Fold this sequence. Notes:
alpha/beta; 7 strands
Amino acid sequence: MSKLIIFALAAILCIHEIYGITIISKAQWGGKAPKSRTNANKNLGYVVIHHSAGAYCSTMDACKTQMRNMQAYHMNDLGWADIGYNFGIGADGNIYEGRGFGLVGAHATNWNSKALGIMFIGNYNNNKPTAAQVSKAKELIAYGVSQGYLSSNYVLYGHRQVGSTECPGTNLYNEIKKWPKWKA
């Protein structure tokens, strides 16, 4: 079997690795192409943590469904260009590509152009983030810093700190307050 065929099979069968870390690509979760894109500046100074406030997912299939549902709501009901978040993290322990790195999100009014938006799938007033979710969020942020998407001096906020909302839910908010870059 030729190396090209082996490579093609490996690409089809494996979870897609982008950005140097394993992320379920938008194509893999069945996302639509965005209506438009706006490039973000490098070295963003902020990370804003969100929850979807919707259904919790603990399997890849359920998380893919939730990502499609959120994208449909954001695009069809709210009229946005794409799903609002840059990334989503499921209780299945996977990172899901939203808008991705290098693009302006639609997740926190007046903060979109200066912050990366990371959303935990589910309602974290009801659920607690898993150790895998916390680990993946930190891994994603560290990668963003290493690649120059985020400043090494970034500040981490929960959505409720930059907008009038309960987001990211009390349980997730209490978790991120323990992270070293969180600021009151």
